[in-house]
Amino acid sequence: MKPVYRILFSLLWLEALACNPRIYQFTVGQAPTIGPNDSLLLSWHVKGSAALQIRDYNYPESGTDPLPDLTLLISQHDMTQSYTLHNDSVITLPLASKDWLVIRKKPDLNNNDIVRYFKLIATKHGKDSTRVIQVAARPDSVFDEVGFPTQLHGDTLVAEGLNNARRWGNNFFILSVLPDTGRAMEVSHAGITRDLHSGNPPDYSFKGTPVTGNWTIRSLLTPGERNHQQAIATGLIIHFIIKHK
User: What total of structural domains would you count in the chain?
Assistant: First the structure.
């Protein structure tokens, strides 16, 4: 390609880029798991005009019942406006190209387990660019689990790892812990070690400890695993009830 054509091609390419919308930034100010009445900070920067769509869905495995209507309070620059979000509907907000807002649910008696989708749309010359942030709005008390792959040490399976700090943040703590069904486990977390047995009531020894952090789970091989190597568990799971602060 001759130099003059290269220059012309580069200019046309730069002009095309200038006509397209772009999303430079779209972030959430805290962990993507919040309590039912927690505030959430969103900030963005786009090229072109901007709009935000908000929609709720049932949290996975929490059922398929229609979600109740709720009121979202959206604050910007010392002003707060309320918006009603109906089941299976979308709130659309026009935005400045660069700004922030704080959103929270108006307190009510609903305690649904929700995944809230925030979709930022940048538009320029009839073209769109989109980005989505997904936030879990969990009830004050939720059932969850954590598990890690196992390694065999003698006659003991050991599973250890770091529970996702970015997912939970600092707003939730452990209330009680249960082992996975069918086996006894030794669980260590936050300087506490307890023997947990299948079929026993929930153990409250870890109450008040953070959901995040290092967990270590140990369990002796079962008779079936001793006799059949292919039956050895590849992962160990514990279940817990989590409380919002």
Answer: 2
